[in-house]
Amino acid sequence: MAAQIQAVAAAHPDIVRRFSIGRSAQGRQLWAVKVSDNVAIDELEPEVLLVAGQHAREHITVEQALYLLDQLTSGDPRVVDLISKTEVWIVFNLNPDGSEFDTRDEFPRFWRKNRQTPFGTDLNRNWGYHWGSLGGNVSANPRSDAYRGKRAFSAPETRALRDFVKGRMIGGAQQIKAAIDIHSAAELVLWPYGYTTKNTAKGMTAKQYARLAHLGRVMAHANGYKAEQASDLYTAPGELPELHDLLRERITRAEALTDDLRARALALLDDLPRGDRICHGDLHPGNMLGSTADPVVIDWGDASRGDPAADVARSELLLRMGELPPGSPVVMRTLARIGRRLLITTYLGAYRRGRPLDRARLDRWLTVRAAARLKEGIPEETARLLRLVNAAFGV
After folding, report:
1. What radius of gyration do the chain's Cα atoms show?
2. Fewer CB within 10 Å, N or C, the chain?
3. What is the rounded CA–CA span in Å between residue 4 and residue 72?
């Protein structure tokens, strides 16, 4: 493969430039090319990215990428016109270690992941966008073919491609306008999103969705493939939002906070650890399904990634704030307060048995959580939340 890419680049130096975007887990080069009419110049033209070989056993995708390179250097007038107004990037094999491992013996191993120790990572589950969600064809089990990795971009191959794409930001604008991942597991043309079954979500307008769906159907019609949204096949999320970002937005928009309290709460938030663990935000036992493999969480719209102590603080805050409806008998309200204190003590005790819990750190998160909770504008809670925040800052 490397020799073939180099030969094409040498034969067409005016339109093809070969380079590496980085190295694999075992140190192999991740070869790529740029194809454009003025290949040595970074022109302000729309850019297209094509990536092959994410899954080791899909060897034909590497051949497809090489075939595309041949077509782009064929001299066909239609292609010449295309590359005169477009810059095309091709990454030929994002998983060379896996490819080598799969073909090492007489018969293929049907290996899918990269070759990170001990069991490899599914590169196509290791991307950043909505990473961390389970369900669909995603697993937290390192032995699974769909193992997502320890964290987003924990694989050197995905980091290399991420950094390359970030490097295509010019003047604050991303130059890559379209990207296609080439796979061979099925005769399908898929368009976003893969993490949700909704047609549109944050980051995509209805107009953009319609254009992608139309393009997918046109491509599929050319060779008889099936066209569908990626999540129609199965959901495959990438990265959860950062809890810090969600809390910052809520504190900023909490109308009950004075400017001074808001500034103090945001400063406290900035001083707290970010973390990279899944945070439920508002977990209830009824939102979880048990299984013999991985737990499955449903109706988890407030999930994020951050410090687990922030989750404990959120749960404690909700237990503190809970009240019976107005007009309830005094004896019932008294019993509810006693029961609430007992429940908080039991909950925190159960958590401490599973992992250490720093009360001082928890109290700091409790203050931030209370400030963020004010954004929800629940009249029955506002006064108590403000008292908690004021007391924390000695106001």
Report:
1. 26
2. C
3. 14
Cα gap 330→289, rounded to integer Å: 38
Structure tokens at 59: 């060897």
DSSP string, 75-109: --HHHHHHHHS-EEEEE--S-HHHHHHHTSSSS--
Give yes or no for residue 284 having a pLDDT over 70.
Answer: no
pLDDT, mean over the chain: 86
- Cβ neighbours of residue 173 closer than 8 Å, sequence gap 6 or more: none
Task: Give phi and psi for 342, each to the nearest 5.
Answer: -65, -40
Does residue 179 sit in the same domain as residue 301? no
Q: Is the dihedral of CA 361, 363, 367, 369 positive or negative?
A: positive
Angle of helix 259-271 versus helix 359-373 axis, rounded to 10: 140
Both 248 and 193 in one domain: the answer is: no
- The H-or-E segment that residue 19 falls in is strand 16-23
- Write down the pLDDT at residue 219: 93
Do 111 and 57 contact (CB within 8 A), yes or no? yes
Q: How confident is the model at residue 278 (pLDDT cuts 50, 70, 90)?
A: confident
What is the Cα–Cα distance from 40 to 60, expressed in whole angstroms?
30
The answer, yes or no, to whether residue 53 has pLDDT greater than 90, is yes
Q: Alpha-carbon torsion 342, 346, 347, 348, what sign?
A: positive
Q: Locate tokens 């295509």: which residue? A: 168
Judgement on whether residues 284 and 139 belong to the same structural domain of the protein = no
Note the pLDDT of residue 297. 47
Contact predicate 251/266, CB 8 Å: yes
Distance CA 319, CA 341 (A): 8
Q: Are residues 161 and 259 in the same domain?
A: no
Q: Assess whether 65 and 87 both reside in one domain.
A: yes
Contacts 24+ apart (CB under 8 A), 178-181: 178/46, 178/48, 178/49, 179/48, 179/49, 179/50, 179/51, 180/48, 180/49, 180/50, 180/51, 181/51, 181/52, 181/54, 181/124
The answer, yes or no, to whether residue 24 has pLDDT greater than 80, is: yes
